[in-house]
Amino acid sequence: MARYIFITGGVVSSLGKGLASAALGALLQARGYTVRLRKLDPYLNVDPGTMSPYQHGECFVTDDGAETDLDLGHYERFTGRSANRMDNVTTGRIYRDIIARERRGDYLGGTVQVIPHVTNAIKEFVLDGNEGHDFVLVEIGGTVGDIEAMPFLEAIRQLGNDLPPHHCVYIHLTLLPYIPSAGEVKTKPTQHSVKELRSIGIQPDILLCRADREIPAEERRKLSLFCNVRESAVVEALDVASIYDVPRAYHAAGLDHEVLSAFGIEPAPRPDMSRWNAVMQAVHNPEGEVTIAIVGKYTGLKDAYKSLIEALAHGGISNHVKVHLDWIEAEIFEHQDPSPYLEHVHGILVPGGFGSRGSEGKIAAARFARLRKVPYFGICFGMQMAVIEAARSLAGIEKAGSTEFGPTPEPVVGLMT
Predict the structure, then answer these.
(1) 308 touches 342 (CB < 8 A)
(2) Taking the model in full, what pTM does it have?
(3) Do the strands 347-350 and 288-296 form a parallel or antiparallel pair, or are they unpaired?
C-alpha cells in the first residue's frame, strides 16, 4: 500500500512547495522507491486553462491534454514521471462534480455539505489510482489560514486517521525571515503558522524552513519546542544558486532521512545521487555559453513561461553550455527596429499567447530570424506568426493573417473548430 506525504505551506505564498515536493520525490527515487506527485489547488476555477498568465503563471499541459498547475511541470522535470489529468484538482472541479451528482439525485435528497461530501470527494481523489507506487506526495496549494484551503486541510486531516499507522506524514514548508536591524532570524511567524495548522487538527511531522542563512542552533531548539517536532525534523531549506541544486541541498540537510524515519523505515536504502551529481557538474561547470531571445507578451512574469525556461536550461545541461535568456516584450518591435535587440543572440524563441496584442512584433522577430539566418523556434502562436511572415514576405500575400485575430481578409492560418 502506498504511503502518503502531505506538503503544506505557511507564513507567505511562493515559498516553493512545488519545488520542495519535486525535490523530495527525486530523493525518494534516488533511494529506489517509486513516487507519484499530485497537486490540490483551492481556487474555484475548474482548471487554470482560462486564467491569465499574470494571475497564475504558466498553464502546464500534460501528455493527456489536461490544463494543469505549473507545479506539475516541476514534478515531471525532477522525477521523469509524466503527469496526467488525475494529478491536479481544483476546488472548482470538486464542486462541479458534486453539484452534478446532486442534480442527478445521487445523494437521495440528503443535505449536501462541505463535511462529509466535499472532503470525501477530495479524499477519493487523493487515494485513487495509486497502486504500484511506494509514495504519493500531495501538495496543498495556498497558505495555511486561507479560507479557501480549509476543505483540503480538513480532508488530509481525516486521511491521517483513515490510513493505517505509519502511512501518513505531514511536512510544513515555512519561512524564517531575517531582520537586519535586529540581526536575528525570527521564528515567531513559523510558530503562528504551525499553531494555525494544529488548531485544525494537523500536527506537522517535519518543518522545512526556508531561510537565506543558516539557522542557529538556538532557533532550531525553539522551533522544536514550540512547534512540537523533533529537533532533527527542523530541516533548513536555504537559498541555492539553481533549482537543480535543491535535491542535493535537501538531502544534505536531512529531509529524505527525516521523512523515512517518520514512516518508521529504518534502516533506509542508501541513495544513489550520481544522476544529480552529473546534473550539477553540467550546471556549474559549463563548457560554453549561448544567448536565446524570448520575444513574448507576458515577459513581466517569468512564471508564465516556466516550462520554456526549464526546457532551455535542460538543453544547456545536455550540451554542457550555460544558457542566457534575453526577455523582450513583443510590442517593442512594432515601433522599433529589432536589430539592436537581436543581433547578438544565437537563437530566437517566440512562445504562445492569446489575442492580437504584440503579434506584429512577433512577426518582425520571425522576419529578422529568416533574413539573418538565426535559428528560430515558434511555439503555437509563435509558429503562426512565422507562417504569416513567410506568406507576406515570400508569397506576396500582403494582408496575410490568422483567424485567431478575428475576421481577416487573407487568412493563411485558420483555427480548428
Answers:
(1) no
(2) 0.90
(3) parallel
